[in-house]
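[INFO] parsing input record for Membrane protein insertase YidC
[DEBUG] input buffer:
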Amino acid sequence: MLDWLYTAIAWVMARWHDVLSTFLDPAGGLTWALSIALLVVTVRLLLFPLFVKQVKSQRAMQELQPEIAKLRKQYGSDRQGMSQAIMALQKERGVNPLAGCLPILPQIPIFLSLFHVLRRLAPDKDGLYSWSDELTDQAARADLFGAPISSSFNMDGAKETAILALDGVTYGSIRTVALILIPLMCLTTYFTQKQIMRRSGPVEGQAATVQKLLLYGMPLSLFVTGFFFPIGVLLYWVVNNSWTFGQQFFILRKMPPPGSAAAKAKSGADKPAVDPKTLAPKPGAKPVRPKPGAKPATATPESTVDGENGASGATASGAADGRPAGPSANGAGNAPRGGAGRAGQGPANRGKRKRR
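[DEBUG] output buffer:
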């Protein structure tokens, strides 16, 4: 049923093997190991648009969390009404919760296809899935540090006999390479899952329980099943996890989770810097320093330019008539009107006293 998928995976590996064979040994284990690594790169590049959709969906779900919390308070124990309200809110905002699974779902059949292809490889076997007899035999005999990529920690039957009959291949070399790749697979899975938790931001309730289950459950399950995986599949998983880790590191740098310290620092850095010179008073202007506790002034002070011109005009006219410059005889002169002028110069009728 899945022969078309097995053939597609085998075809991609064969094309990369042809490219690498131009400068590497076609039968070498390094050539086939790099072919598996480049298979990972090909698959992840094809799935990158789905990864972007996953990140956008997670960001949208995080933005809806405050409103979902309000709905939970509003409906209380009415789970059916709350779920309908949450679904309506998600539909209104165009958020699809299943979009977070988009990059994971296509990788499952790809992993199973590679597992199936490498498990069926054996020396002196007929061509498999568009591979020629020669290419199939090369892949079965290609070893990585003495461990053929089609071998596994535990083998049985005719395949065990055929692989152990190869020159320089022993259970010791196979299990040494497997015992290095299995912990690497588990560690990279753990750190990748922890990075996914950072990317999705803080969660509560069942989501937090699921995250913890995946954080510790996936590495433990892989540690158990890794003893049955071929060496090539272990290599595929390590390279795939390394790619995921680097890709998520890049996304977290460019698109930090909302509300995180990195997001606040990024939003602060995006604001335009204020030039201190624009806040300084203009040349010739007296800086205003309001007194502590004083209310800010609402009225604009009147200009004194006209008053100064008037005073200079009066002085000049007085000098021309031979009279001394100064206030007029009645004491009013050019004195400013209002309470401030009267307070500075005294009453207007000062000096006019009754003669006795």
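[INFO] Residues 299-344 have pLDDT under 50 and may be disordered.
[INFO] shutting down worker
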